[in-house]
Amino acid sequence: MPVSNLKNIPYSVLDLATVLDGHTPSDTFKTSLEIAQQSEVLGYKRYWFAEHHNMAGVASSAPSVLIGFIAGGTKTIRVGSGGIMLPNHAPLIVAEQFGTLASLYPNRIDLGLGRAPGTDQVTAMAIRGENFNAAHNFPRDVEKLQQLFSAGNRTSNVRAIPGEGLDVPIWILGSSTDSARLAAEKGLPYAFASHFAPAYFEQAISIYRNNFKPSIYLQEPYVMACVNVVAADTDAEAEVLSSSVKRMFLGVITGRREMLKPPVANMNAHWDQLEKEAVEQMLYYSFIGSAETIHENLEGFISKYGVNEIMATSHIYDQKAKLHSNKLFAGVFSQTFEMSF
């Protein structure tokens, strides 16, 4: 029997703190903790939150707070940002916040950094003000963060306390080739947002690997791919459950963003052909089906792209179904499809 490509691949979770239709952010945070605690037991390596603003259906506007909440409710799983949108913040504040987290939860905190605003342009202006074009300073701000975390910064006039001298791994996040070049230049691990921006995935990871420069942080390229996952006992059941994420992305392309909706039996009643094609293009790197189906498709994905780690994001309306999907997906990596939790 051939050795599985998935045997030694770490698997992780990206949580957007999605708010369900008819529920509140408070409800979301409680279910996130339940998923994180289950993920820890199931062997997931990381549990990350992404920074978003001005979205009724997404409650992850303050990821550093959520990271502390989840880290405090778990024991071993790494918790971090996927990511902090650095141009929205002063590097010193980020260093202090994550230095505080790393002091509270040693060797468990990750800092993923992105340059996008994580919101619409009007809200980005409200966040950044006169620093609206701060994205242009992203490479320099990453360097500032590295300096603030370094033990050698102790003689500086500006110090991150806590933060200085602590081991807070920095990741570069991206959905384009620019981020790939930056991650390669700085010798940092690279996480690609293939769960919503598949178009540049193959090109970006190729650029990253071909231009990677070893650093004190990382000797060889390390690629994490974030993908959509909806697992269920049967392919048919997973297809129905996946209608929730399809409706969510339909809201993205039409500008009618809503809270996460319950699944529907027939998506054709909710989109036209052009909308369907647009949503399916955004969801190109999605793994939907039974554990067996996902295992087969994920084997092909790993074989083709050779990624070092998979991060799953799962927009499933029913919490029991989401927990079951999370369990099934973990089983894909150990090939124990009948796991119990």
UniProtKB/TrEMBL annotation:
Describe the family membership recorded for this protein in Swiss-Prot or TrEMBL.
To bacterial alkanal monooxygenase alpha and beta chains.
Which source organism?
Answer: Pedobacter mendelii
Ranges for domain Luciferase-like come to 21-300
Pfam families linked? Bac_luciferase
Question: What name goes with this protein?
Answer: Alkane 1-monooxygenase
